[in-house]
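Section 4.2 – Deliverable D4.2 (structural model, holo form)

The reporting period included a commitment to supply a predicted holo structure for the target in complex with pyridoxal-5'-phosphate. Inputs used:
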Amino acid sequence: MAPSDPDQSATPYADALRRHRDGLRGPFMIPGHSAGVWGSTDRLIDFMGAEAVALDIPQLLPGVDLEADSPYARSRELAAQAWRAERTWFLTNGASQGNRMALIAAAAFGDTIVAQRSSHSSFFDGLVVSGLTPRFVHPTIDPVHGIAHGVTAAQIDDALDRARDAGAKAAAVAIVSPSYFGAVADVAAIAEAAHRHGVLLIVDGSWGAHFGFHPGVPASPTQLGADIVISSVHKLGGSLTQTAMVHVTPTAPAGLASQLERAFRLTESTSPNSLLLASLDIARAELASNRMGLEVSLAAARRARELVAASSVLSLPDDDFLRHPDVIALDPLHVAVDVRGLGLTGAEAKARLGAEHGVFVEIASEHAVVALVGAGQGARPELLVDALEALASDSATDAAASPPAPRPPQPGEAVLTPREAYFAPSELVAADAAVGRVSTDLLAAYPPGVPNIVPGERITAEAVAFLHAVTRRPSGYVRGAVDPLVAHLRVVRETA
Ligand SMILES: Cc1ncc(COP(=O)(O)O)c(C=O)c1O
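Output (structure tokens):
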């Protein structure tokens, strides 16, 4: 690790891009847009801005990212220090890439992974590429809000015992914290359980890049015993869309960092975008050195909660969430609002907020919408609450007319590993005929992108009905579907 107490306000990589731009006179190399120097990129500049085009430079440049002590290397060191990690990778294919990297790296340590079933679909893609056999732990479903929160240390302990008794060589435990709804799991206790069994803990911390940077937010999983932490910095951390980080912590086993490095090479482009990488450099500097930034967003989120609490038609589901044993805290920047008092479902409120008020919230459940306040942003909570309250007047009739939100199905029986099923001979069949067959594909209603059918699981009538109901909803989208209406599914071909 680099020397302690670094200046976290420094942005060495972003500064190096600017220096390169200032010295660039004759770009006879990629990118072909010539950074605008030859003046033939007017349409691109008109759209992107001249500065963005000028700073879009290729990899492997001396003084930028080539040398072992390059500004890029320094920027990654600063990020590792900010999150108290041993080493940090900058990703330009999202936390989705991070999940694939983590699982490929973990496969060097065993053949099985104990994982939260409500993980993001990219985690399941990681199962396909790594070949790890999952043993799932099912989160409790919140009966009021119809959403899955997290898992407990006791559940993980039990699953690891059962994996050992079945003769499996568990490599890792994988959990998600915080959840899409901001619910925080007891990472420290889960880390203890994983390490007692001699396995790694991977935390998909995609929704909590800002954790650990202010006393008003929960601690980062990097400080709670996790070995690998995946962080979708673009979600709430302030970097550009598609950027993320993977951290390996100082207490992780020897050899894990080099496996992650290999997995990074396997999954990353050889031409990661310099603007995206610089945005990670700047987001880290802001999180780690601008305490006021987080204070402003915490104040905005607090004000939003106050306004909701004072409303006669809205309420806060926070206490409902905290009643679940798998939730030990909530991220203050995820503001969940119970909209039942509007006579609308969460999905209806979300759709109408956007269409009628230009107010866009991140996600909706049956009874709630979740508004996010990005770290460092001073949002205007009044805008959200006023728009929500304005939906109340004529909503009762709409609510009666719309179908109830579909409930996620129970998983089907696992017959093959995700990798076996993915590469098995397959055929496309009509959705009705797919019931009882083994899926080769992963299908996940989005958001939240939690898989409803996993490769290797038998397709149930309940899952097909759920996915069809999702496609009928206004913003319904099923990731992994062969066709948008899920009329057909790909299944393992049966031999006669
Ligand atoms: C828990 C979780 N992990 C990973 C991802 C993937 O993140 P990205 O969009 O950065 O690839 C998401 C996306 O929503 C997510 O919710």
